[in-house]
Design brief:
Layout (H helix, E strand, L loop, with lengths): L1 H5 L4 H23 L5 H18 L6 H18 L3 H15 L2 H4 L8 H10 L6 E6 L5 H9 L3 E7 L2 H10 L7 E5 L12 E4 L6 H11 L5 E5 L10 E4 L7 E6 L1
Parallel strand pairs: 1-2, 1-4, 2-3, 4-5
Antiparallel strand pairs: 5-7, 6-7
Helix pairs in contact: 2-3, 3-4, 7-8
């Protein structure tokens, strides 16, 4: 069972299980030792135990502070007597910005200007080509590339509502070469594009490679920002000196 939980593809489910296990352990501890705990001490202990359990379940390291702070934050908010509407508003805002990150495990990353400049040098300058950004965010990369490399046709797929809306507004011009679609890029056929760009996370890179090999045309190029495909050596690596220390990895199909 422990192995099954640690390998599930839904980290939100693993996080919930970690909190439930932590709560059960605290209840057993209190009942067997009669340990007096204040509400806030219980919340802190809950966070510590949930963080430890999530670590044992091999969750991503950034889940640790979430577990540590979740229950203390809930207790603090309740003590302040805040309206539940605030929680609903925060949840709605997070959903609008990040979409179904809890399922995709791909947060919102914005490509830097250094990435845009490097990408412009990689794209063809003397012939037409098609380019797609998987998870195009607010459309900044597409918008800038379309101005520096006008020979291309630019496409983006974004599932988070607010970034999609921003990207659509950004490219409202009749002369814009960018076409942004709202949806799941896993359902999008990659056979129509010469260059496919992705700035995702370590989790889906193996699946992305399988999709690329099945759908992309021979000679087309897959470019990943920061995250490598496990077990597949890139044809080229371009380290960049931007704020996040990005590296562009290229694979030719």
């Amino acid at each position: 069972m422990w192995s099954f939980i640690s390998h599930t593809r839904l980290p939100s489910l693993v996080a919930l299980i970690s909190q439930i296990f932590a709560l059960a352990l605290i209840c057993i501890l209190v009942m067997t030792t009669a340990l007096p705990l204040t509400l806030f001490e219980w919340a802190l202990l809950q966070g510590l135990m949930a963080g430890f359990i999530s670590y044992q379940l091999k969750m991503a390291i950034w889940w640790l502070p979430i577990h540590l702070l979740f229950m203390p934050a809930v207790i603090t908010m309740l003590a302040l007597g805040l309206s539940p509407l605030w929680f609903g508003a925060v949840f709605l805002l997070l959903f609008l910005v990040y979409g179904k990150t809890y399922r995709t495990q791909v947060p919102l990353y914005l490509s830097s200007r250094d990435v845009t400049d490097a990408m412009a040098l990689l794209l063809p300058t003397q012939r037409k080509f098609s380019f797609i950004d998987l998870g195009s965010g607010c459309g900044g990369l597409l918008n800038k590339l379309s101005k520096t490399q006008p020979h291309g046709a630019y496409y983006g797929v974004e599932a988070a509502p607010l970034p999609y809306l921003i990207s659509k507004i950004r490219n409202l011009s009749l002369f814009s070469k960018c076409r942004i679609k709202w949806g799941d890029f896993w359902q999008h056929d990659l056979s129509h594009y010469d260059v496919v760009y992705a700035y995702l996370s370590p989790v889906p890179m193996g699946s992305l490679w399988q999709k690329a090999c099945q759908e992309m045309r021979p000679g087309s190029i897959l470019i990943s920002n920061t995250f490598r495909i496990p077990g597949v050596e890139p044809e080229k690596s371009i380290p960049l000196n931007d704020f996040s220390g990005s590296t562009l990895y290229l694979w030719r199909i």
